[in-house]
Design brief:
alpha+beta; five-stranded mixed beta sheet; three-stranded antiparallel beta sheet; 10 strands; 18% helix
Length: 202
Amino acid sequence: MPHRMHSTGDQPEFEQHSVCVEQRTARLPHQPHPPTPPSEATGPDPSRAPDRYRSAVETTVVLHRPDGRVLLLRRNAPGDDHRLVLVGRELKHDEWADDGARRATTSAVGVRIDPADVEYCCTAHLQVDDGERYLVVLFTAQYWRGEPFNTNADRDVELVWAEPGEPPADCHPVTATLLELFVTGTVQACLRVPAAGQRGTA
């Protein structure tokens, strides 16, 4: 993964994408989450700011093996054309993003990730061609418990370990975009991607 530095005089200047690489290589200690107030545990109050825009949020996880390959799933949902996608789920209203990432991974491929092994990569605000916009919080993990397997044969038909820098041609457009952000170490992006079935996660 690239990590380039430009020097101007005595002060080194890092490109923006180097921040994410540093976070992935220098793993920060896990910080416990604050407790959820009882009023939030039952869901949002529809009477509060009814006109406020609320974006859907997905947590997506790049399971990264020592050989550099990452895990993709081949979708079997209608309209997805058996495209390859990353592991991910929509965030629940009472859930922290990293906890949602861990839940998504267990739900999709049966492995468990310890909180300290979830590493933040990127936040992307995506718009597909049909006009929907949503946020994706991208995490990675290099350590997990268990062997990945297909937990939902009706939804996914195959697990594929692929090179993130050269993903298969039949990747979902959103997955291809997220993999590019992962490889380049981009920490923030606002992008428009082609519509192709459902969102690019499993």
